[in-house]
Design goal:
This protein is of the alpha/beta class. Helices cover 53% and strands 12% of the residues. α4 packs parallel to α5 (98-110).
Length: 210
């Protein structure tokens, strides 16, 4: 955790539902010794902890509304200001749109920081649908029909593509083939990050994942 090569591991992982983004995010964050910062986890932690931000989120969710960008960004900033994120982080689920991209850039610039890389897990739509359908069957989630799954993917494609274009223009995007075994995909991520000069602690130890 004290290696110079990991001192500035500020990463974002992006991918459609079913891409394995959550699992890979955990593995990469652990390898670099930085926290995985996922918006869903932040929302739940603040709500369960009864924080002022959590109360605002709970009221919005109970009203059936979406958490607005400004509040989402405030929650993420609060999380990134915690000590364990001082040496870096891996963002998952934020930013989701151009406004949040600008919010994050402004926050990091204010600390003299910037993202080091954006990991894009690329998985064909048919593969994502098959994985999500298989997961829904195994978990008994009868409401996750192919139509519902396809709609979620359409939202991802519509909202996330512009974000990737922004980061691609900045030369930050590392596009990773997300099809393969867990270890194969993880190693591709490590290799791409290493090419960018970001070397994980104990690189190659991804086989520890179940």
């Amino acid at each position: 955790m004290t290696a110079d090569s990991t001192a500035s591991a500020r990463l974002l992982i992006v991918g459609p539902q079913g891409s394995g983004k959550g699992t890979q995010g955990v593995l990469v964050a652990e390898a670099f010794g930085v926290p995985q910062v996922a918006t869903g986890d932040i929302f739940r932690a603040n709500v369960s902890g009864g924080t002022e931000l959590g109360k605002r989120v709970q009221a919005i969710i109970e009203a059936g509304d979406l958490v607005p960008d400004a509040l989402t960004s405030e929650l993420v900033r609060d999380r990134l200001e915690q000590p364990d994120a001082a040496a870096g982080f891996l963002l998952d689920g934020y930013p989701r749109n151009r406004g949040q991209v600008d919010d994050l850039a402004g926050f990091l610039a204010g600390r003299g920081e910037a993202l080091d890389a954006v990991i894009e897990l690329e998985v064909p739509r048919d593969e994502s649908i098959a994985r999500l359908h298989d997961r829904a069957v195994k978990q008994g989630r009868t409401d996750d029909t192919e139509e519902v799954i396809a709609n979620r993917l359409a939202i991802y494609e519509r909202e996330t593509a512009p974000i990737l274009d922004v980061y691609r223009a900045q030369g930050l995007v590392l596009t990773i083939d997300g099809v393969g075994t867990l270890d194969e995909v993880t190693q591709r991520i490590f290799d791409a990050l290493a090419d960018r000069g970001l070397v994980a602690q104990g690189d190659g130890g991804n086989g520890a994942a179940a």
